[in-house]
Design goal:
It is built from 11 helices and 16 strands. It is α+β, with helices and mostly antiparallel strands. The protein folds into 2 domains: 156 residues, Major capsid protein gp5 fold, CATH 3.30.2400; 129 residues, hypothetical protein PF0899 fold. Strands 1, 2, 5, 13, 14 and 15 form a 6-stranded mixed sheet that branches. Strands 6-16-12-9-11-10 form a 6-stranded mixed sheet, with helices on both faces. Helix 2 crosses helix 5. The two termini are 40 Å apart.
Length: 323
């Protein structure tokens, strides 16, 4: 079965509006971005930023705890609190997405003039799929020409010294080892900061396989909850924290953070579509150009779990073999 990025059914913005192609106007760009977010439930929930330039600074402020002191009458009350400004940046990477539509398809399509609208939605859906996959799996050091477009959240988190790492050591005991260890690695202050209607905004993100294995562990306990999981389709929780399965997360990686801590930025003013009619090849050729980037807003509120011991041993063995 072909992967998402190899699906032939691509699409384009309304070619009647664009003529022979070029930069989308503001309305077309907004419609394209709306198609993307409507299709991807994940993009609806993360911190989605429409950038006005190819770079954007993400500034945040942090104050230290326990700054309160007893007042001293008729004397100086020195500052005991500090305010720290932290800055991270989005730097949009340019990408190209070329695709072809045959003359025959355009002739036979039952939607007639509406085909352009359908193609626009399909293209936005596929673009959303590809960019979310890249947002998780992106690694500029990889040899795959899709994966190495840009660094994604997993790569950023692994290399950032300010994120928190939990070494699962390959454990598959999600109930008693992995999930408790991930939550223990999160600083306590964020459990009170990230709340909404008495529910935590902090989520546990994992692969669908890990999610199923965790459900199986709950089912094995022969409780009412375990019975409900057999027929229920809703996300389950661990200790009150929702577990969110994400298709693009590898089985050996788990993430604990709020949705809003995951930044996805797209430079809306750079969206361009070019359309060429190539009679000798009996096809329409469309090319989309766009710029986007991913970042973690607050690395201190981000926990990544993985079998880091095994990864370190593998790197050590590779280095010894090279030597």
């Amino acid at each position: 079965m072909k992967s998402n990025r190899n699906i032939i059914a691509k699409a384009a913005v309304d070619t009647s509006a664009l003529g022979n192609g070029g930069r989308m106007n503001a309305e077309q760009a907004n419609q394209f971005i709306t198609f993307m977010r409507d299709y991807s439930s994940f993009l609806k929930k993360v911190n989605f930023i429409k950038m006005t330039k190819t770079t954007r600074d993400l500034d945040s402020l942090e104050v230290n705890k326990r700054a309160l002191r007893r007042q001293v009458e008729n004397a100086d009350n020195p500052a005991t609190g500090t305010v720290t400004q932290k800055r991270r940046s989005l730097k949009a990477i340019g990408v190209v997405m070329p695709y072809d539509v045959s003359f025959q398809y355009m002739k036979e399509n039952i939607e007639g003039k509406n085909v352009n609208s359908t193609l626009a939605k399909l293209f936005a859906q596929q673009f959303a799929n590809d960019t979310v996959e890249l947002a998780f799996l992106g690694d500029e050091s990889d040899t795959d020409n899709f994966i190495n477009i840009n660094d994604g959240w997993i790569k950023i988190a692994k290399e950032d010294s300010d994120t928190h790492k939990f070494d699962t050591e390959g454990s598959a005991d999600y109930l008693n080892t992995v999930f408790p260890g991930l939550l223990a690695a999160m600083p306590n202050k964020y459990y009170s900061l990230y709340t909404e209607e008495d529910k935590s905004k902090i989520k546990i993100f994992c692969s669908p396989t890990v999610n199923r294995k965790y459900k199986q562990q709950l089912q094995a306990r022969n409780t009412a909850l375990g019975d409900a999981l057999i027929t229920g389709g809703k996300n389950v929780s661990y200790d009150g924290f929702e577990i969110v399965p994400v298709a693009f997360i590898p089985d050996d990686i788990q993430i604990v953070t709020p949705y809003e801590n995951l930044i996805y930025g797209i430079y809306g003013q750079s969206l361009e579509v070019y359309h060429d009619v190539v009679p000798r090849k009996t096809r329409h050729e469309y090319t989309l150009l766009a710029d986007f980037d991913m970042e973690i807003n607050n690395p201190d509120a981000f926990v990544i779990g993985g079998n880091f011991t095994a990864q370190t041993d593998t790197k050590k063995d590779d280095a010894e073999q090279t030597a």
